[in-house]
Design a protein that fits this description.
This protein folds into 2 domains: about 120 residues, Rossmann fold (3-Layer(aba) Sandwich); about 190 residues, Dihydrodipicolinate Reductase, domain 2 (2-Layer Sandwich). About 5% of the residues have low confidence. A 7-stranded mixed β-sheet has the order 12-11-7-10-9-8-13, sandwiched between helices. α6 packs across α8. The chain is built from 9 helices and 13 strands. The radius of gyration is 20 Å and the shape is globular. It is of the alpha/beta class.
Length: about 350
């Protein structure tokens, strides 16, 4: 099925509230919000968190401590941040995303939710029953190179029927530190699924993500003791009645070198590469701009639910293959002595030829 973009009615926002002031907000969202405040004439700004320490760097007149998550609407109402002219950003830990969206549904003009929109598909599906406008914040999709792939797909310049393989890498050299992160599949594997689906969905609205295999590892001898897996390789197929494209997603922290890219292998040996080295705050700003300009989202709620389901599937079949030394990139080939299906065998042959 060919995808068609639908524009939202133009809406003027006068206020913005950001719920959750953790690492993502401080590193990326805060700067993007302040730039949009100036450029779009937003009059009021509020940052909310349940942790007073997270609010220390926020000016007193622009911060609010939330004592009870169920009272978010009351708090916002007392500060004048309810109504159709309010844009609410949910940047809390992932387990609270859907709950906050439900509590604010119909009380603000638009709700934007950081990725992943949920950690369970049954929770994510509850967003479909809400009456208000919702946009997932998947900032990697709004990196300049990925947006160009989306634009070229919409115009027909990029023909996905000629794509023979997809490879996504998000290799980071730093460790986990004190950050509260999701499992690596939901933390950065989610980005890979989102980027390839967002780009291809500009032409096809009925794509399925079939997860064939998932392997995970955890670094050792690093600056911290991670409580969750820190590396994963996910393989599968992006498919509909027209397309059948093998993909490989390789993500991890504490690797030897940084590598952040999306590659599309076409027939005749042509390779298209999108880089993710651009600043994260610029990508977050583009997400906000798309909402403020009432532009169609590059990745909607229904696509995001498909990604959550795929991450669930990957977690369900994931094989933990031990550890790797911090500062070294895992050798995944050693843990793939036998591929689990003919589909994956074909995908692996394509990947070995391409990459």
């Amino acid at each position: 099925m060919i995808a068609t973009a639908t524009c939202r009615p133009k809406q003027a926002f006068k206020a913005l509230v950001c719920i959750g002031c953790g690492d993502v907000t401080n590193a990326k969202v805060n700067r993007a919000v302040h730039e949009c405040m100036l450029e779009y004439g937003l009059e009021r700004l509020l940052f909310v968190d349940i942790n007073g320490n997270a609010l220390q760097s926020i000016p007193e007149d622009k911060r609010a401590l939330l004592a009870d998550t169920s009272k978010i609407a009351e708090l916002l109402g007392s500060r004048g941040f309810l109504g159709e002219d309010v844009l609410a950003l949910v940047c809390t830990p992932s387990v609270y995303h859907v709950a906050y969206a439900e509590l604010l549904d119909g009380l603000v003009g638009h709700i934007a939710i950081e990725k992943p929109i949920a950690l369970r598909s049954d929770e994510a599906e509850r967003l479909l029953s809400l009456s208000g406008a919702i946009t997932p914040i998947e900032h990697q999709v709004y990196k300049a190179d990925v947006m160009r792939l989306c634009q070229r797909t919409r115009t027909g310049e990029l023909d996905w029927e000629r794509v023979r393989g997809i490879q996504f890498k998000l290799h980071e050299t730093g460790g986990v530190g004190e950050r509260a992160i999701d499992d690596i599949v939901f933390d950065t594997g989610y980005h890979g699924l989102a980027c390839m689906l967002a780009a291809a969905s500009q032409a096809y609205s009925d794509l399925d993500i079939e997860i064939e295999s998932c392997r995970t590892k955890t670094y050792r001898l690093g600056p911290d003791q991670p409580k969750k897996c820190t590396a994963a390789i996910i393989r599968g197929m992006l498919r509909n009645d027209v397309l059948s494209i093998p993909f490989e997603i390789s993500v991890g922290k504490g690797f030897e070198a940084s590598d952040k890219s999306l590659r599309l292998q076409f027939d005749r040996g042509v390779v298209e590469t999108a880089s993710f080295n651009e600043s994260g705050h610029l990508a977050h700003k583009r997400v906000l701009e798309s909402i403020l300009n009432s532009e169609p989202a590059l990745l909607g709620v229904e696509e995001s639910i498909r990604i959550v389901r795929s991450c669930e599937r990957a977690m369900m079949i994931a094989e933990n293959t031990g550890t790797y030394r911090f500062g070294q990139t895992p050798n995944w080939q050693a843990v793939f002595p036998k591929l689990i299906s003919r589909t994956t065998q074909i995908a692996a042959r394509v990947m070995s030829f391409v990459w």
